[in-house]
Amino acid sequence: MLAVFRSGTLYASSALLASGVLVLLERIGMPNIALATSVVVGTGLTLLARERGWRLPNSEEAEELLPDHLPNANETKRWWRRNSRKHTRSARGHAHGGRTA
User: Fold this and answer.
1) What is the pLDDT of residues 39-85, one digit of tens each?
2) What average pLDDT does range 20-45 have in this prediction?
3) Is residue 8 within 8 Å of residue 59, measured between CB atoms?
4) CB of 25 closer than 8 Å to CB of 37
5) Do residues 41 and 21 lie in contact, with contact meaning Cβ atoms separated by under 8 Å?
6) Residue 26: how many CB atoms within 10 A of its CB?
7) What DSSP element (H or E) covers 100?
8) 46 and 10 in contact (C-beta within 8 Å)?
9) Average of pLDDT values for 18-34?
C-alpha cells in the first residue's frame, strides 16, 4: 500500500496546508512566491512530522479520545432552545431600558 494512504501519516495534511498557502498567496497576487512557499511548507511539514514521529490517530485511537457520551440531536436542540431564550430575553431587556415587553 502506498505510504500516502497508510493510517497516521501526515502526507495529506501537509498537502492540504500547502495548497491552502498556494491559493491564499495566489489570490493576493503573488504567484511566484505562492508556488515556492507552498512547496517549502508542504515538504517542511512532511519532513518535520517524519523526524518527530508525528502522526494522525487511527480509528481505534480516535475513539479513545472521544467523551463517553455524545449528545444526540434532541439533546442538542433542547440545549440551543434553553440557551437562545436566555440570550434573547437579556438582549430585549437591555434594548428597552431594562423593561421587557
Assistant:
1) 999 999 999 998 888 887 776 766 677 666 667 778 778 878 888 76
2) 95
3) no
4) yes
5) yes
6) 14
7) none
8) yes
9) 95
Which run of H or E residues covers position 97? none
Q: Which of 48, 22, 50 is nearest to 36 (CA)?
A: 22
- What number of residues does the chain have? 101
Q: Quickly tell me which residue has 500516502 as its cell.
A: 4
Res 74: pLDDT: 80
Determine the Cα–Cα distance for residues 87 and 64; give it in Å rounded to an integer.
35
Q: Which residues contact 19 (CB under 8 A, 6 or more apart)?
A: 38
Q: Where are the alpha helices (DSSP H) in 11-58?
A: 11-27, 31-52
Cell numbers describing residue 82: 434553553
